[in-house]
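User: Predict the full complex structure for these chains.
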Amino acid sequence: MFRKILVANRGEIAVRVLRTCRELGIRTVAVYSEADRDSLPVRLADEAFCIGPPPAADSYLNVPNILSTAELLGVDAIHPGYGFLSEDPRFAEICRDAHIVFIGPPPEAIEAMGNKARAREIAQRAGVPVVPGSPGPVRNEREAQQVAARIGYPLLVKASAGGGGRGMRVVHNQEDLARALQTAQQEARSAFGSGELYLEKYLREPRHVEVQVLADSRGNAVHLGHRECSIQRRHQKLLEEAPAPGLSPRLQAQLYRAALRLVQAIGYVNAGTVEFLVDRQDNFYFLEMNTRIQVEHPVTEAITGLDLVAEQIRIAAGERLRFRQQDVQFRGHALECRINAEDPAHDFRPSPGRVVSFVPPGGFGVRVDTHVYAGYTIPPYYDSLVAKVVAWGRDRAEAIARMERALREFEITGIRTTIPLHRAILDNAFFRRGEVYTNFLQRRVDLGQLARGSA
Amino acid sequence: MSGDERPSLNFEEIRELVRIASEADITELEVEAGHLRVAIRKTPRASAPLPPAASPTPTPSAAPLEEPSSHWVPVAAPMVGTFYRAPGPDQPPFVQEGDRVEAGQTLCVIEAMKMFNEIPAEVSGRVVRVLVENGAPVEYGQPLFLIDPRG
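Assistant: Here is the predicted structure of the two-chain assembly.
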């Protein structure tokens, strides 16, 4: 097992990883930017080292400074959290060269899944269904026209290097295709450094369902069930649950099989998530694989009783999985609400600033992962996630009731948050029936009323 | 690693405390961690006296320390790495306390990723303090020297 782990991240996920390290008896190093000098991870870690000025490019993405810190402080492994360097195959490779263990999959697996067009090809070869579209990247407009003629409109133009909805365009007819290709390419080039595009059929009202997997370096792999992540705003997940409500046993088995086939096909090691779109006829399509711990992993922890970060660390240390598939038991239902520092009254614009009061909820079945405390100033440089509230219940109705109770208790003043939005979702009759799909918010929640209510 | 094996507070943490104490508008700071208690008291004489428990204080100079002035300019580490005062192990330091330096003149090197980066003075003046011990790890933004531009 490792002696000392460096956490190359910030915010709630840094706190999350530090906690598990402490429980495993592993010493910790937090690295931080000048904007995070007073942050909770800096306080919780055994050692803390400043690695750069506030912009992430100069600090949390500053590979030389992070690796120098790791070497100077005698670190044997780095946990990248999510975002930042977590899905950068070059970083994983540099760690390997420096004989520091990267707590995540091998760089080859990150690379294979990081290029979305290539991931599609690999999935197809592994017999995992993909959304009908171009077999790989499209090289020019003519090629795109040919694909469009085959799969029909509406379709999606997507960036190979993309994610989080950026570099993505919905195209409704042939006339708009050329322009969509152009703008998506520009956006992709500036956001990801690559203008490579591919096409996909646009599914109406699909659900976003994902399968959590764990694989060790000895060829053992298990799934830890599925999660529903359909409640999104502008392709950003807001509210997740485990298990996804109302999936037929047959569909669940198919999703698990597909996810594990992909894991095998790319020699995947460590924790990962295989994302699928599911349509109303129970057809499912591979969307992408996230080769890291995910924001919403606590809902899986709640229903399996497993600490996923601890499993990640054990796998990275070369240990064998301590359980087989039949040992994984699912119990109850869990929801997660991502509380962001955003203003619902002003189109969810970021609301950084000083948190005056902060009274998180607690009690049976409630977990709050956060780096925020009263008096903390949320810096404007990073993402707006303030806290993740997770509520567990014996069934979905109990989990919803508990989450409503928790959010009612949660007091945050000084900044605006998305708590009112979550309360509106939990109160929605369609949501309560489990009728969710990726455009749920646009269709079922009156954001205007929410804005007036909280203004 | 200096102080790394200490059970409660390590050298870095103590230095951080010293920095907090010297920057904040306070005269005393006491921190307890495990068996170790560190008390930092600011006296009008020294800018940041190191507690006895910490590793040796930065290179003492022959001349008595003069009182710090607000116009002194700190030279901060532009990267994480190992601080070296000399170009090689058997060579004399680039600068000593009391030396006059010109802007652009090398003050030290920081080794990062097996590369030696020369750190130049940004202003001309006199080196009034060397704040870091030779061979110590430095973090981003850590003050390395104080330069008196009027000196």
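The beta strands of chain B are 28-33, 36-41, 73-76, 81-84, 100-101, 106-112, 115-120, 125-130, 137-138, 143-148.
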